[in-house]
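Usage example:
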Amino acid sequence: MPDSPFSRRVLRVVARIPRGRVVAYGDVAALAGRPGAARAVGQVMRRAAIPGLPYHRVVAAGGLLGGFGRWPHVKAQLLAAEGLTIRRGRIAGFGNHRWQP
DNA sequence: AGTTTGACAGCAC
DNA sequence: TGTGCTGCCAAAC
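Running the assembly step on the lines above writes:
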């Protein structure tokens, strides 16, 4: 488990995303105390790869799916399993399913 | 210590 | 609507 302060905050935020809700990388960055560090958030999660964390609930801006390592389709699958509708790589009604603490 | 690397974001075409 | 380019940031080399 990554030990840098930033990494811990990012992972902590991701851990508390409720089931069936999603957030943008940029939002996670802001919640982690580093607005604008959206790209770094993805970097941290990719490297951390901690089992049990709902990484699939973190999407790109505008409800785009964004990346998910080598298995982008799994991300869509997991989100669909939580009741979300994915259409052409985007989350339908992103604004409604978006998580805000 | 400087450079490269991405699970990004926003804007210009 | 879709593609491309630029700016950004933390971590790995």
